[in-house]
Predict the structure.
Amino acid sequence: MSTRPLFWSLFFLSLLVGCSSKDYSIDEIFEDGGEVDTEPEDSIKYVCDQKKYFFVKYIDESKKSLWVIFPKKEIRLNKTEISNVYSNGITKLVFNENTTSVKKDDAILYSNCSSKTE
């Protein structure tokens, strides 16, 4: 008897058990991976050109570090010597008087962003 069918049976059985151990609905399991526009708690939403957006969440009250939360990832940035710039050495968040932008190296990823207050 070959062990290959037994291996695959056990593999798929473990997947079924793993999925059934959580409270997932069938819709969540077969979800198309679309973005959900939920605002992280205690964050500020910035709306930009080209219908882009991101959230900023300060890590502490001193505002020396923050999280920039994009639809599919988040990065931590630290305050630089320039008072209106946060960076991790690659990505920069630049706050200006009227607009905010996100830059990676020399490329502008998000431009003309303004905070959305509700």
Remarks:
- The chain has a mean pLDDT of 81.
- The chain is about 20% helix and 35% strand.
- The longest helix spans residues 4-20.
